What does this fold into?
Amino acid sequence: MQTPKTSYPEQTNLPALGTPPIYRGRFAPSPSGSLHFGSLIAALASYIDAKAHHGQWLVRMEDIDTPRVVLGAADEILTTLEAYGLFWDEKVVYQSQRHHLYQEVLAELTSAGNVYPCICTRKQIKQRGGFYDNHCRNLQNPVESNALRVRQNYPINQFKDGLLGKVSIPEQIAQEDYIVKRRDGLYAYQLVVVVDDIEQQISHVVRGADLLEPTARQLSLFKQLHHTPPKYLHVPLAVAEPGFKLSKQNHAPAIDNKAPLPALKAALSFLGFDSTELSHIDTVVDLLSWATTVYLQTNLPQHREIQVNQLNASEYQFQPL
Ligand code: GLU
Ligand code: ZN
It folds into this structure.
């Protein structure tokens, strides 16, 4: 255990040491490329929130969308997490190896009459106003080569986020029957995330604010499956410009495995940690231990997006939007 170098604010919102872990958090990257600064934020925020609550932190590889999976990316992500001191507490699970779980839940929803095939193309949906109007709900379309949608029996148009407070979701999105199995036969993100969060007994989800709308759908699926949902907290999304998250497409570079300190310090400043204090710390272990000790959810920036400019390899500039 690290000895803190300075005195730290009292933490009243966290359980005492020695309490059995009732907190299970996770980081769920899609292995479509290396970790970049944006994904480091999500990894780091979920890790620190878990550790500050004396909880467990799991890593789940979301490699369900096989056409987007890049060979070797999953291993590379794990190597990067280790280089950044972010060690996970249980064996990593891979969605590609869990089809039986997804099939089981899909069968359950189907036998309850809550799933139907949809023949609508993206273009048709766009022409009808951009939202799915549950067009195929009562049509008896063939299952073969069609997407499967779940009847939205529990529309959620509002929920409470741990950082952002009340989040409202457009009514049309809340009412949409959403896809649980794609036309190409792949299980859809909404389904697998909820099945995995239930199966892994995740109690807290900390992730980027690009997933606010999916959260409403996930909450409704938890209801449909009669499970208590985890608590959700969405940290600001690192964007290259308003509305565009850092990604390979806009040339967010992979973060450096050999020199983790600059990106780690920048990620901590992004998350609202005191940049003067952290500038004096010079190992990964000390930085994470310090961050976990001083962490308060209320110090996280309450923004949906923060613009990031990388000035050089070790210097970043942030602009809340
Ligand atoms: N795999 C998703 C992503 O990389 C994150 C899913 C989640 O955290 O629920 O965007
Ligand atoms: Zn349809």
Summary: The two ends are 38 Å apart (CA to CA).
